[in-house]
Amino acid sequence: MNEKAYEYLERDKLHHIDMIESLNAKTAEVLYAEDDGVLLYNVPSCTFMISTEQRKTLDRMCEIMREASLMIIHQIQFLPFLRERFGLEERMECFQCAYFGNKGLDEHIPEGVELRPLEMAELEFVMKNYEHDAEEDYIAERIKAGMIGAFCNGEPAGFIGTHSEGSMGILQILPEYRRKGIAYSLEASLINRILGQGGIPYAQIVTSNEASLRLQKKLGMAFSDKTVGWLY
To answer: Which residue in 61, 90, 91 sits closest to 76, CA to CA?
Structure first.
């Protein structure tokens, strides 16, 4: 079924980059793959990844999923239906973006700033300063997976990592270190690392996050002309 899944998803590669990269990384199980849609289950994140334009196909996918607590749908017109069908209270609409450059980025690391992998000893720092709700076990897992920290004159200034399904995120700069180019350096460093591992760096940006949208454009990320929706 993988071949059929790729065939469908690559009709709009940028819009489906999260699903394609999950297949490339072999972290997703193909639950449905036909000309009318694809349903994946991303194992590390326990996420159902859905793409179909057909309501009848979506109904079949729902029967396969049966129960779900976390999903991403690539056709946001189906958000209300899925939210009611699975009793999921929260939703988040995002722009999908990816870096397709052949060469790495100049990280433009500011003077006095050092970038290095975070260590477990810095878990408390991340938990204290990350502005979104996250379980401690999840952040610990992400540190082990390879979060990058920024240190200004030896003091922790910010961090970035990848989410368990593969997207870049968990980006946070402490208020006193903002507007110094550190966010750019952190994400450029992460992009370079993912490129070096043979992957395509991608991110999902909440539609209202204008600062992050500007950063992605500055980094040369390409944006899908469609949005995706998370339910949880």
So the answer is: 91
pLDDT tens string 116-165: 999 999 999 999 999 998 999 999 999 999 999 999 999 999 999 999 99
If asked whether residues 15 and 87 sit together in one domain, one would say yes
**Residue 220 domain-assigned?**
no
Count of CB atoms within 10 A of residue 100's CB? 13
- Counting the structural domains of the chain, the total is 2
Pair 142, 183 in one domain: yes
Does the predicted TM-score (pTM) go above 0.70?
yes
Residue 102 confidence (pLDDT):
86
Query: What interhelical angle do 2-9 and 17-24 show, nearest 10?
Result: 150
Verify that 81 and 135 share a domain, yes or no.
no
Q: 30 is written with which tokens?
A: 């193909």
Q: Tally the residues of the chain.
A: 232
Is 8 a member of any domain?
Answer: yes
**Cβ-proximal residues to 143 (8 Å cutoff; 6+ apart), any chain:** 118, 119, 120, 122, 123, 126, 161
* Helices marked H in 76-135: 79-86, 123-129
Q: Which of 80, 83, 39 is nearest to 57 (CA)?
A: 39
